[in-house]
């Protein structure tokens, strides 16, 4: 291993056994720079934190956005990875409900103040002082990661730990609005069947909803039906055909980019909801008049509360909802990034930790 410090991290060397705060991680020195294995110092474990030995970590497009500093939030040197599964190794003095050896998962958020109005009402994900793993901390492409105990979630034994990492980002992103807005009698639609959409279909179907999936031409129709979609339609349909396919009580937009949302808004049922989950969508190009006649609404969200996270894990265990993933060793990170960028992942990529001890 190269022991020369080229990134500003101190110290970069193999630690002695007593140096519990050191870990190996894939570190990028700047936007888009190669992620190379280095030793990094995590600093003292905070009283309200737990430390987790990483076993598996999902790869998400948000990791790539942060790596390239597309949102202006990234602090370099940078460690990506925010869909983490592993075992608790250390517990801070004031951390609660977790013990060493327990298998947990963690995601985008890594801390909340616990005293603001949002936190006191159970909406810790909206805490104005929340900590985000990839902004204020170090991510899961590492041998160890840390989080506030409130954002580490025990994984039910009946779920396959190697495959569930995407639940802690993609899963909770779609489960939260389904939990809040879906009813068993609803006709629903999922626009875009990728990392988010394939989980949305499974959750909606288990909730008892009728599900229509709008997919691009390269979608695996048989697989999407197997996820639970009763109908699979091309996303490139004209506005009239999308409206005819409805009306829909809930439409989850699980893709970003240049999608035109007006035809989907026009396909809402009375009191229906168009809920946008994909990042970097283009500005809405329609008037609220389109919604007034049927009392419909447009909304958006990201992640969910700790309570919803626990509900999602219990629901997934009960109904055997598991992300469809491809496994690669963490040393194959460049290959994994290339597959994700090329749109070849079906439907999420999980990296298995393989650091030398």
Automatic annotation (TrEMBL):
GO MF: alcohol dehydrogenase (NADP+) activity; zinc ion binding
Name the UniProt record assigns to this protein: Alcohol dehydrogenase
Cofactor(s) it depends on: Zn(2+)
InterPro entries with a match to the protein in the record: ADH-like_C (IPR013149), ADH-like_N (IPR013154), ADH_Zn_CS (IPR002328), CAD-like (IPR047109), ER (IPR020843), GroES-like_sf (IPR011032), NAD(P)-bd_dom_sf (IPR036291)
Protein family (similarity comment): Belongs to the zinc-containing alcohol dehydrogenase family.
Keyword list, A-Z: Metal-binding, Oxidoreductase, Zinc
SMART domains according to UniProt: PKS_ER (SM00829)
UniProt cross-references to SUPFAM superfamilies, sorted A to Z: GroES-like, NAD(P)-binding Rossmann-fold domains
Enoyl reductase (ER) domain location: 32-351
Keyword Zinc included in the entry's annotation: yes
Pfam family membership, one: ADH_N
Species name: Ahniella affigens
